[in-house]
């Protein structure tokens, strides 16, 4: 789970607050899906990949051994992970002369040490060519606060992938100039960009924990060159996002909920479900199913607290009707917690964390 304010210090405060504030169960108005977490397979041991800070989200460069991790803190940004050697190093784009003609209104290219990357998404655009979309907090100068979606090109024709900065799109502001803070991102085949906002500036963590509507989905298109809110997508804590394979539907994780909308404006909710055992964070495809991970709440009978949010789950979702299939659960350990995403690569499952100094993985037996 991720929470954001409007500066680095507030971000840190938000995360600490998340794990120390008690509250009542959220999204209680949604029907509980038929899911049996008690028989879910237990992850007995985790292995680790180090040299990473705050790997909040993970993607794979398709059909390669390479993974990319976001880094949600200073001196972090993006990481290149070798899934064979289980090693990681920073992935830095050289200084570009100018932004791509596709993004003429870009803000200055972010400094590698200033980027704080949240959700990421990858799209193939040609043979061994990919676009990487990254939600970025700050990223230009310590004295400048901004919220952008950064777009990079990945060239996989060399021994190691090469990253090139293409440009960025500025997140919208409210009527008094406060930035909307992006959370997760996904792109369309027409170069549209979809971003979740977990909390609009007028809302806070208390509102979100109380189950109030705090966020929405926003869409940017090359035609309009601006973000517009998709009316009808307002939810409690909009988080992970994905498009259906035909791009006719949008999937969004929101606290203990998952919803499916038509890709229209206004959008129509066509399915929704509730995770009675945990929160849903980042959302990605795993073959023909969706997959998410997050903290468990099964023992939170007295409200969400630090003690009961330490365990984690991995859940697959039927994209048609959002039927849940919790496939793994794991116990908290002192080395790794704050699970925010899962990436399935063959029989290996990689886990990200929004505040730990490593990513984890385990093998499916």
TrEMBL record:
Xref: PROSITE patterns: PROKAR_LIPOPROTEIN (PS51257)
InterPro entries on file: 6-blade_b-propeller_TolB-like, Serum_paraoxonase/arylesterase
Keywords per UniProt: Signal
Signal among keywords: yes
SUPFAM superfamilies: Calcium-dependent phosphotriesterase
Signal sequence region: 1-22
Name of the protein described by the UniProt record: Gluconolactonase
Species annotation: Mannheimia cairinae
């Amino acid at each position: 789970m991720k929470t954001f304010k409007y500066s680095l210090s507030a971000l840190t405060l938000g995360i600490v607050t998340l794990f120390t504030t008690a509250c009542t169960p959220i999204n209680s108005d949604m029907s509980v899906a038929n899911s049996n977490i008690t028989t879910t397979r237990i992850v007995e041991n985790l292995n680790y990949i180090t040299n990473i800070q705050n790997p909040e989200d993970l993607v794979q460069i398709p059909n390669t051994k390479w993974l990319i991790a976001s880094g949600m803190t200073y001196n972090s940004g993006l990481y290149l992970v070798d899934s064979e050697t289980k090693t990681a190093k920073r992935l830095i784009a050289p200084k570009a002369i100018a932004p791509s003609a596709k993004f003429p209104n870009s803000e200055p290219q972010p400094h590698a040490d200033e980027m704080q990357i949240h959700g990421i998404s990858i799209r193939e655009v040609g043979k061994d060519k990919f676009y990487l979309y990254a939600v970025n907090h700050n990223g230009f100068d310590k004295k400048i606060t901004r919220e952008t979606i950064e777009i990079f090109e990945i060239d996989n024709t060399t021994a190691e992938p090469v990253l090139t900065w293409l440009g960025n799109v500025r997140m919208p502001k409210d009527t008094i100039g406060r930035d909307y803070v992006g959370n997760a991102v996904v792109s369309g085949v027409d170069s549209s960009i979809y971003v979740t906002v977990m909390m609009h500036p007028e809302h806070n963590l208390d509102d979100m924990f109380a189950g109030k509507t705090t966020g929405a989905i926003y869409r940017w298109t090359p035609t309009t060159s601006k973000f517009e809110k998709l009316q009808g997508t307002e939810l409690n804590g909009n988080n992970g996002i994905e498009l259906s394979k035909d791009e006719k539907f949008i999937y969004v994780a929101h606290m203990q909920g998952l919803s499916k909308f038509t890709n229209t404006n206004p959008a129509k909710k066509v399915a929704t479900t509730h995770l009675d055992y945990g929160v849903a964070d980042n959302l990605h495809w795993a073959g023909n199913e969706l997959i998410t991970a997050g903290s468990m709440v099964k023992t939170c009978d007295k409200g969400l607290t630090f003690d009961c949010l330490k365990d984690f789950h991995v859940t697959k979702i039927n994209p048609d009707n959002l039927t849940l299939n919790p496939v793994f659960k794991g116990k908290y350990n002192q080395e790794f917690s704050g699970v925010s995403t899962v990436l399935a690569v063959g029989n290996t499952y990689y886990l990200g964390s929004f505040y730990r100094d490593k990513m984890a993985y385990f093998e499916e037996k």
